[in-house]
Every structure is written in structure tokens, then in C-alpha cells.
Amino acid sequence: MNKQQILIVDDEEVNRAILQSMFQDEQDQYELLEAANGKEAIEHIESSRDLVLVMLDLVMPVVDGFGVLAYMKERDLLDTVPVILITSEAVQDSEDKAYSYGAADVIHKPFYPHIVKKRSKNIIELYQNKHNMEVRLKEQEEEIRAQEKEIRENNEFMIEALSSVVESRSAETGEHTRRIKYFTRIMLKYLMKYFPKYGLTESQIDTISRAAALHDIGKIGIPDSILLKPGKLTPEEFEIMKTHTTIGCDILEKTYKNKSSEFYRYSYEICRYHHERWDGRGYPDHLVGEEIPISAQIVAVADVYDALVSPRVYKSAYANNIAYEMIMNGECGEFSSDVMECFGLAKQDFFNIVEVIKMFSFS
Asked: Where are the alpha helices (DSSP H) in the chain?
């Protein structure tokens, strides 16, 4: 097993001998290195493999102690290799300067070997405990990141699976869910940039965009006779169709364990409220104005736009500009002025996404 190394740097041979003698009974643990000046010390530091302490004189020829400290500081070595400055100078400025460089301790000559040894061992142990803790924290961070990645991938799989089930039996195309996520993310970006009052973060934008994919999971519980009807729904059928909002929330409540998570909250808000309208004429709860969560407000516009520009069994697709004008003119319900401003900013982005999807097959 390789021994840990202690470097003793002093231009006085007798001082090096005294410092060396402190660790003679621990030669099985430490390899003692010597340097008569700062230049030799730097050479040892460059070639060392497991340096755990530098005992450094201040006044030396060629390169002094501050030169060695400067070298170690430039290379960020002082965070991992402690330096005890041993000096005959009793000048406060020199001591302050040593600590400002990052020295772990300053001991003045003449020194008592047993005291120096005890302080040296304490500092070695302190730095090694710190290093071990940092290593363990790093390992734990990597483990947490790996777990988060696995959870995220599992969540994405479940989202895609649920969305596919809905789309496989509805009048919507397989790309509806993906487009809703794109449209939602784009509008949220504009909302974060131009409306800081909502306090959106990049992390929240990502979470809301993923939750948007579950906006219509409640359609799983709607009968095919209504869900796939090629014509206009009767008032009674439309009332049943409206229940997809609450059915979706029931599914979330029964299947999602962590109900305190942001993802669950946004998924629930979007499932239940993405058909609410600013003037209270939406459903299922007839919320008014800011009673509607901003996540659901954004997804509502994305959902309406995609429904207009996409073909359905009961209608043909509207052109991008016509769909845009219909929403801006209030033909699809009333939305907040903030959300409408974001929709206006996102207009060309929405058009581009629709045109790209027309050009390529994503099946």
C-alpha cells in the first residue's frame, strides 16, 4: 500500500531534522519528503502522488514560502493539501498574508515538536474527512441524478403510453399530444420572458410542458359513440364529453402516488381546467379570470389552436392564419390578455411547427 506523503520545506537542515523526527514512529504510514527551498518544494509537489501535508518555512532562498503558496493557490491545491507555515517572523502582516493565500495554520519558531505534531495530525485528519465527505456527497449526487433520470424516463414512458391509449381511440391524430407539448413550451417561454409576475422558471416550464401531454387522458372514459361521432354532439352528449376533465383527474388521483409533487399538481390543473374560460363560460367548474391556473390557461390555447389546424372526423383543418384569427377574435372563448399577448408572440412559431409536421411523417 502506498504511504501518504508529508513534505517538509526549510532551508535550515536542523529544522528539517526536528520536524522529521516527529513522524519517525509513524514511518509505516507516512513517507517524509524534504526540500531546502521553494523551488525544490514545487518540484516535489508536482511529482507527488499522495501529498497530505506541507510544512513550509517562510524565509528561504531561490523561492520563499509565499512563492510556494502562490504556486499552490494558482492550481487550486490548497483546498486539498493543507499547508502549515512555520516561521520565525512574528509579523502580523505576514501571518495575515499566509492565511489569505489559504494556509491551514501558522506556527512560530521556536516551536514545541509535540505541539506541532498534534496540530499537524489534526489538520491532516480534518482535510481528509473533508475530502471523504466531498467524495461521498459527489457519489450521492450522482446516485440521486441517476434515480431522477430513471424516474423521469419512467414518467415519460407512462405519459406516452397513456397519451397513446387516448389517441388510439379518439378522433385525434397521434401527433396531437406532441404538438400540445411544443405549443405549451413555446408560450410558456414568452410568458417567462415578458410576464415575470408569474415567477416561472425553466424547471417549471419543463414540468408543465410534460404535464400538458395528459390534458385529455379522461377521454379514456368517454364512450366511442360520442368520442368518435362524425357530426355535432347533442346537448346530452356534450355534457358527457365534458366529463373527460373530471375523469382525467380521477385517473390521476388513483394512479399517481406522490400527490405533493409539482408534476402531479400541474397535471391535475391541466386535466381539470383546460376547458375553463376567462369569462367563466368554460367547464367543468366555471372558474373566472385568475381563478384558472396559468398552466391550464396556456394549455387551453395550445389545445384550441391544434384542434383548429388539425383534421377531425367531424371537420377539415383550418389554415394557420384563420385559426389564429378565430382565437384572437374570441370565437373559441375568452382568454386573458397576458395569454393572448403570448399567443401573438408565438404566432410564427406555431405556424412553423404546423408546416414542418405537414412536410414530414413522424409515425
From this structure: 13-21, 38-47, 65-74, 92-101, 113-168, 176-194, 202-212, 224-227, 235-242, 244-255, 262-273, 294-309, 320-328, 337-345, 347-359
Q: Which pLDDT value is given to residue 362?
A: 45
Residue 31 pairs in a beta bridge with 5
Rounded distance, CA 283 to CA 262, Å?
23
Cβ atoms within 10 Å of 68's Cβ, excluding its own: 28
Q: Which three cell numbers stand for residue 233?
A: 354532439
Query: Is the Cα dihedral 302, 304, 309, 313 positive or negative?
Result: positive
> 3-class DSSP state for residue 54?
strand
Location of C-alpha cell 368520442: 227
How confident is the chain (363 residues) per 10-residue block, as mean pLDDT? Answer: 88 90 83 93 92 92 92 92 84 79 87 85 91 89 82 68 65 71 96 96 94 90 88 93 95 85 93 97 97 98 94 83 95 96 96 77 46
Marked catalytic residue, from 219, 257, 259, 315: 219
For the purposes of burial, counting CB atoms within 10 Å of the CB of 111, is it exposed (0-12), middle (13-18) or buried (19 or more)? middle
Query: In three state form, how does the secondary structure of 100-146 look?
Result: HHCCCEEEECCCCHHHHHHHHHHHHHHHHHHHHHHHHHHHHHHHHHH
Q: From CA 140, how far away is CA 145, in angstroms rounded?
A: 8
Note if 219 is an active site residue.
Answer: yes
pTM over 0.85? The answer is no
